[in-house]
């Protein structure tokens, strides 16, 4: 009799949790604010990247130049290099962004660029962002960084039920992967951000990226702008309560220290 009562009690609590989760999944997304369209910076010919590329591009007028990044370590080092050399803007778009060693190291480099006055736009698909809202809030709190989430789940914690209640919407994902510095130099290809893509994990994904310059770069930026301004791209500040200035500063410093402690060489 006692076991039956305990089972009934457990089932009752489970049912309450499931009902609450279902209601949360059915609640829908918050109202997306009216946002002015933003586009990539057009005139960045005064940047270091532009000046360094000018002779090579002048030798091939109207053509783009490409350099393959086959090795994961090279692909990661080049992303860090873009963040370090950028002077005006960084536009970053990924389907998967893990907050592991490589992800945190790249975030720290992005934040360092923002500290130098670089405008950073970070656009991530929400499908693999469960549990990462706090880190995105920390980055977004920087005055020169804006984070948007593409096609977010309404519930930031209970996601599974939305595949039942809103499958047609949730099934629309953003698989684009690009990182563009000063609208002059871009990395595109198959790699997301995570240790397994850059030779930093036991599992090593074989993939290919291209470093590109020339007329193709504004085309990549135009695609980024289309997604950035899409009604499905929500500012992270719309989905979660923004951090206080003090908390954001403390968490940003923790991020810098965590990366320093790992002492990852690139």
Key phrases:
globular; 8-stranded mixed sheet; alpha+beta; single chain; 44% helix; Endonuclease, Chain A; 266 residues
Q: H/E element string?
A: HHEHEHEHEHHEEEHEHH
The CATH class name reads: Alpha Beta
CATH fold category name: Endonuclease, Chain A
CATH homology-level superfamily:
Endonuclease Chain A
Total helical segments: 10
Helix-residue proportion: 40-55%
CATH architecture: 2-Layer Sandwich
Summarize the main sheet: 8 strands, mixed
User: For the CA atoms, what is the radius of gyration?
Assistant: 21 Å
Structural class: alpha+beta
Global morphology: globular
Task: Count every beta strand, where a strand is a DSSP E run of 2 or more residues.
Answer: 8
Mean pLDDT: 88
* Arrangement of strands in the largest sheet: 1-7-6-5-2-3-4-8
Portion in strands: 15-25%
Q: Which residues form runs of ≥5 with pLDDT under 50?
A: 15-25
Number of domains: 1
Q: What is the terminal-to-terminal distance? A: 64 Å
Give the topology, please.
Layout (H helix, E strand, L loop, with lengths): L1 H25 L21 H11 L6 E5 L2 H14 L3 E6 L6 H15 L3 E7 L7 H8 L4 E6 L11 H4 L1 H4 L7 E4 L3 E5 L19 E5 L2 H13 L4 E3 H4 L5 H18 L4
Parallel strand pairs: 2-3, 3-4
Antiparallel strand pairs: 1-7, 2-5, 4-8, 5-6, 6-7
Helix pairs in contact: 3-4, 4-10, 5-10
General description of the model:
- With 266 residues, this protein is of the alpha+beta class.
- The protein has a single domain (48-262), classed as Endonuclease Chain A (Endonuclease, Chain A, 2-Layer Sandwich), CATH 3.30.870.
- It has helices at 2-26, 48-58, 72-85, 101-115, 133-140, 162-165, 167-170, 216-228, 236-239, 245-262, and strands at residues 65-69, 89-94, 119-125, 145-150, 178-181, 185-189, 209-213, 233-235.
- It has an 8-stranded mixed sheet, sandwiched between helices.
- The radius of gyration is 21 Å and the shape is globular.
- 33% of the residues are buried.
- Residues 15-25 have low confidence and may be disordered.
């Amino acid at each position: 009799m006692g076991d039956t009562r305990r089972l009934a009690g457990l089932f009752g609590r489970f049912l309450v949790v499931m009902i609450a989760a279902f209601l949360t999944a059915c609640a829908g997304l918050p109202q997306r604010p009216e946002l002015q369209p933003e586009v990539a910076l057009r005139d960045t010919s005064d940047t270091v990247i532009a000046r360094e590329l000018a002779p090579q591009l002048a030798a091939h007028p109207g053509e783009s130049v490409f350099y393959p990044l086959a090795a994961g370590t090279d692909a990661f080092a080049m992303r860090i290099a873009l963040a370090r050399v950028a002077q005006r803007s960084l536009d970053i778009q990924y389907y998967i962004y893990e907050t592991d060693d490589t992800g945190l190291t790249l975030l720290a480099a992005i934040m360092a660029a923002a500290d130098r006055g670089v405008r950073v736009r970070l656009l991530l698909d929400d499908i693999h962002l469960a549990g990462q809202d706090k880190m995105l809030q920390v980055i977004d709190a920087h005055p020169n960084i804006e984070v948007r989430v593409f096609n977010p789940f309404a519930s930031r914690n209970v996601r599974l039920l939305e595949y039942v209640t809103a499958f047609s919407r949730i099934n629309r994902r953003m698989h684009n992967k690009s990182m563009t510095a000063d609208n002059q130099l871009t990395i595109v290809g198959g790699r997301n951000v995570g240790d397994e893509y850059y030779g930093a994990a036991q599992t090593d994904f074989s993939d290919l990226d291209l470093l590109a310059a020339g007329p193709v770069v504004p085309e990549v930026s135009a695609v980024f702008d289309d997604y950035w301004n899409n009604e499905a791209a929500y500012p992270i500040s719309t989905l979660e309560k923004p951090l206080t200035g003090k908390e954001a500063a403390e968490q940003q410093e923790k991020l810098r220290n965590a990366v320093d402690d790992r002492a990852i060489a690139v």
